[in-house]
Amino acid sequence: MKTEMIVIIAILMGFVLLEIIFTNFFKKKGQKPSDGIVEIISTLTLSLFTQPLVLASGFAVAAFVAPDYADVLKGWPFLAVFGLFLIFDDLTQYGWHRLSHTLPWLYNLHRPHHNAEYLSVRIVYRNNLFYYLLMPGLWLSGALIYLGGGWVYAVYIVIKMTVIFGAHSDVCWDEPLYKIKWLSPVMWVVERTISTPATHSAHHGKHAADGVTNYKGNYGNLLFFWDVLFGTAKITRRYPEEMGVENLPETSIAEQLIWPLAHAPKPKQAAASE
């Protein structure tokens, strides 16, 4: 196993431990029996199959299209290559995420992420199994690795996943920092730069009228700056009381994981009165 993956797993386990201690990791408020199954299958599939496959495929496509450009980025400064990953991975994921809340067919692939009525590191990888297969950022990251950005990607992905784990965890690391008055200017910069529990929980809020929820915004993954730049940011320094989506129709485990190959059973219509 690669070093960066070991580090990412260790960081994830750190957040898991925090949730076990402070917020009951194994039984979240509003949890349904199907939630754990969806989360285990989607997380294992992405980690063991989808992500390695897509990165390798992006690498292979780049090698086929540009055979003379292998390792061309190895002489570039670290920050320049890091910037390429921010643009071709994180910015494209912002766009992919935004489209997922715009196009109905793509929302069906992303819906499992919001089907959970709680926030937790458990749901970080919770999406339809086809969602990550189609994600442009993973394909482009594979291409950048072929071009020589592999060692920068190892650093980049550790930083990105740390931010994403922290933004999804219901152990809100930003909440005590907001209470320290002299840190307020620092937090003003932080919350406009990276995703935080406050800004990302707003994206998962259930009620649009609660003054916090921004379901059609706060799409950022590593950088929240993309939301600020493109006008989709909502910053309140508060957290929704309920998570999920209003008026969400019932679904099944199979539909969450493998739509369009499976659909939720249609509700039976009441028999017409004679």
Written overview of the protein:
The chain is mainly alpha-helical. It has ten helices and no strands. Helix 2 packs antiparallel against helix 5 (136-168) and helix 3 (78-100) crosses helix 5 (136-168). The chain is globular.
Radius of gyration: 20 Å
Distance between the termini: 67 Å
Which percent bin holds the helix content?
55-70%
Mean pLDDT: 94
Draw up the topology in text.
Blueprint: H1 3-22, H2 33-65, H3 78-100, H4 104-115, H5 136-168, H6 175-178, H7 184-190, H8 197-203, H9 225-230, H10 253-258
Helix pairs in contact: 1-5, 2-5, 3-5
In short:
Helices cover 55% and strands 0% of the residues.
Give structural attributes.
274 residues, disordered C terminus
